[in-house]
Design goal:
WH1/EVH1_dom, NRF1/Ewg, 10 strands, DNA-binding transcription factor activity, WH1 domain-containing protein, two-stranded antiparallel sheet, PH-like_dom_sf, disordered N terminus
C-alpha cells in the first residue's frame, strides 16, 4: 500500500466578472515507499541514454559531420571524419602538429618567429634585419677549374643581417655580419663577416646565394632560400649595405677637423638610487628552452650534456 505525506490542501477563491472560481492545490509528494523505487528501477537504461545524449558531445558532433555536405561548383565535398575510431583520421589532426614548425605553405615564417629572432639580436646601435623564410646553409671549396663545386649541407636556419655601427663600448668596431639563427631559439648556428672580398651574390637561381668566407677566401658558403621573394629582398638589403665602404671594412680618407674648440669635461652623472629604480615593466617572455627541446633544437643537443642530471 502506498503512503504519501502531503501538505494541507489549500482552496483559492477568485472573483472575476461576478463569477466565483475555485482552485484546489494538488498535494505535493515528499516521501515514498521503497516499493515505488523498485518499480521505477527498470528505467535505468532510459536514464543512462538521456545522459549520454545530453553530454556525449563527440557523438553529436560526429552525427553533425555525417549529415553535413558542402558541395562546391566542381562537385567536391568535405571528407567525413570519424571521432569514434581512435586509430582513424583524428590522429592526423593533432598527432603531427608541432609548434616549432610554424611555417606557412609558401615557405615564409610567422611573425612570432621573426620577432623572436629580432629580439634575440637587437641591441643599442645595432641594425637587425631578419629574413622572412628558412634557408639551408651549404659549404664548398672553390678552385680554378670551371667544374661546378660540390655543395655539402651543413645547417638549416633563419638568415639574419647584423650591422654593428661601432658606437658602443662593447662593439666599438663597425662591422657587417650575416648570421644563420636557429628557428625556435634564436641561437647562432653560423655567422661570418661580410667584407670587400665576400662577393655576396645570387647564382643562376634567385633562391641560391653564395659568398666567400672571410676567414678563407678559397672556401664558399651558399644559402638556399625557401621563398624567392624573401631571397630577393635579402639580397637587395645586403647590396644596399655593402654599397657603403664603411660597412665592408674599407678605409676612407679621413677628413681634417679644423677650428674645433677643446671640449669641456663633462660632469659625471650621479647614479640613481635603488629606491629610484622601478620594477621591470612591459616584460614579455619571448624564448624559453628546456631539456625536452634536445630532440628539436640542434644547439640544445650539442651544448647540453647527455647525462641524466644537468645542474641548473
Amino acid at each position: 500500500m502506498e503512503h504519501y505525506q502531503s501538505k494541507t490542501n489549500t482552496i483559492y477563491h477568485s472573483f472575476q466578472n461576478g463569477n466565483v472560481k475555485t482552485c484546489e492545490e494538488k498535494p505535493e509528494q515528499i516521501y515514498c515507499d521503497p516499493e515505488i523505487v523498485r518499480k521505477n528501477s527498470n528505467n535505468e537504461k532510459h536514464a543512462v541514454q538521456v545522459i549520454m545524449e545530453k553530454y556525449d558531445s563527440l557523438r553529436c558532433l560526429n552525427t553533425q559531420m555525417d549529415n553535413l555536405q558542402i558541395s562546391s561548383d566542381s562537385g567536391d565535398s568535405i571528407a567525413k571524419v570519424s571521432f569514434d575510431d581512435s586509430n582513424g583520421p583524428s590522429d592526423d589532426l593533432n598527432g603531427d602538429y608541432d609548434e616549432n614548425n610554424s611555417v606557412f605553405e609558401n615557405g615564409e615564417l610567422t611573425e612570432q618567429d621573426i620577432v623572436q629572432v629580432e629580439v634575440f639580436f637587437r641591441s643599442h646601435k645595432t641594425y637587425v634585419s631578419v629574413c622572412r623564410c628558412l634557408a639551408n646553409l651549404y659549404f664548398s671549396t672553390s678552385d680554378g677549374n670551371e667544374k661546378k663545386n660540390e655543395w655539402e649541407l651543413a645547417r638549416t636556419g633563419i638568415p639574419v643581417i647584423l650591422l654593428d655601427k661601432g658606437e658602443t663600448r662593447a662593439r666599438n668596431k663597425r662591422m657587417l655580419q650575416i648570421v644563420l639563427a636557429e628557428k625556435g631559439s634564436g641561437f647562432v648556428l653560423w655567422k661570418d663577416v661580410i667584407d670587400n672580398l665576400s662577393n655576396y651574390k645570387a647564382e643562376e637561381s634567385s633562391t641560391f646565394h653564395t659568398m666567400y668566407l672571410s676567414s678563407d677566401h678559397r672556401k664558399m658558403a651558399g644559402l638556399s632560400f625557401d621563398s624567392a621573394e624573401a631571397a630577393e629582398k635579402f639580397l637587395k638589403e645586403i647590396e644596399q649595405l655593402t654599397s657603403d665602404p664603411l660597412n665592408i671594412c674599407l678605409s676612407v680618407p679621413k677628413q681634417k677637423k679644423k677650428g674645433l674648440k677643446p671640449l669641456k669635461k663633462k660632469e659625471k652623472m650621479k647614479q640613481p638610487r635603488k629606491s629610484e629604480i622601478s620594477t621591470p615593466c612591459c616584460f614579455e617572455h619571448v624564448t624559453s628552452v628546456a631539456l625536452d627541446d634536445k630532440k628539436k633544437l640542434f644547439s640544445m643537443a650539442t651544448l647540453v650534456p647527455s647525462g641524466e642530471k644537468v645542474s641548473s
